[in-house]
Write a structure and sequence with these properties.
This protein has 287 residues and is of the alpha/beta class. It contains ten helices and eleven strands. The structure holds NADP nicotinamide-adenine-dinucleotide phosphate.
């Protein structure tokens, strides 16, 4: 039997509706959530992502502060801009679109954003809190993965989860989120020996390699839940890391590409920005 589709587009629409309602409530109390998005350079894929974020902000009633900087911008100029956004009370969340030009140190940029405005969850303080299991701003893609699993009633506790990919923005944090929900987690990467042997043990398999068709049907246990994070642009459109047509015949649940984790990531960004605005509103009420 073919796997059930975990429909990130539909679930993200539900999240956006909730965000819109909570944003309206906040606005009625005089606080309009504001998200700043900074793009340095003219990478075409980044331009698409930034436009999607601006549109998403408009749809839920956020103020968006778009900052487009040329590729020649030096690090100090970018850090100065972030400083200004940090101290702007209308801006509750700040996101700097990656990748940055090579002459800018992305770690320094991540550290420059005030942790409470760090809606990407990349600041070392937020990463540390995530690692320690303390309430924090969770990074959007990993948060979207777990949100989608929970929406579909997938039990994580006690399950064997295998994450393929160990990046700071997807692989490592999603491993931590799954661990925090009591999965037994294995993290794989390009030096993992006998990858199929490991992935076949997964009850929940998350693929985040950026390499199309890394995961074929012979690598998936019957009935496993498969999450495809990968996005590769090809002439025929976006494709994921999972051989969808073959794997859907083996898995119990699967995410499509597009329409899976991509829309969930944007929805979680809105949720994080809303959370930042709500926290700001309640702390100003206490003052
Ligand atoms: P990344 O930084 O390039 O990391 C890729 C990871 O996959 C690395 O840990 C790498 O191992 C591992 N890997 C690569 N090839 C492998 C193979 N054949 N077998 C096992 N492991 C392999 O990428 P990323 O930023 O995590 O993104 C991963 C994918 O997700 C990309 O396609 C990206 O576009 C997509 N993405 C999607 C969203 C979304 O919203 N849907 C958000 C973020 C990222 P090493 O560490 O050993 O090199």
């Amino acid at each position: 039997m073919s796997a059930a589709i975990m429909d990130g587009k539909a679930v993200s629409a539900l999240v956006r509706r909730e965000v819109k309602e909570r944003a309206a409530l906040l606005a009625s109390k005089g606080v309009k959530p504001g998200l700043a998005v900074v793009l340095v350079g003219d990478d075409p894929a980044s331009q698409v992502y930034v436009r999607q974020k601006e549109k998403a902000c408009d749809e839920v009633g956020f103020a968006s502060f778009m900052r487009y900087l040329p590729a020649s911008t030096d690090e100090k100029e970018l850090l100065d801009l972030i400083d200004g956004l940090n101290s702007d009370p209308a801006v509750h969340g700040i996101l700097v679109q990656l990748p940055l030009p090579k002459h800018i140190d992305k770690d320094r940029v991540a550290e420059a954003i005030r942790p409470e405005k760090d809606v990407d969850g990349f600041h070392p303080i937020n990463v540390g809190r995530l690692t320690l299991g303390i309430e924090t701003m969770e990074p959007c893609t990993p948060k979207g993965i777990v949100y989608l699993l929970e929406h579909y009633g997938i039990d994580i506790e006690g399950k064997r989860a295998v994450v393929v990919g160990r990046s700071n923005i997807v692989g490592k944090p999603v491993s931590l989120l799954l661990l925090s929900r009591n999965a037994t987690v294995t993290v794989c990467h390009s030096r993992t020996k006998d990858l199929p042997d490991v992935t076949r043990q997964a009850d929940i398999l998350v693929a985040a390699t950026g390499k199309p068709k890394t995961i074929g049907s012979s690598m998936v246990k019957g009935g496993a839940v498969v999450v495809d994070v990968g996005i590769t642009r090809t002439q025929s459109g976006l494709i994921g890391d999972v051989d969808f047509d073959a794997v859907k015949e083996v898995a119990s649940y699967i995410t499509p590409v597009p329409g899976g984790i991509g829309p969930m990531t944007i929805a979680m960004l809105l949720l994080n920005a809303l959370k930042a605005a709500e926290a700001c509103a309640s702390s100003s009420m206490r003052r």
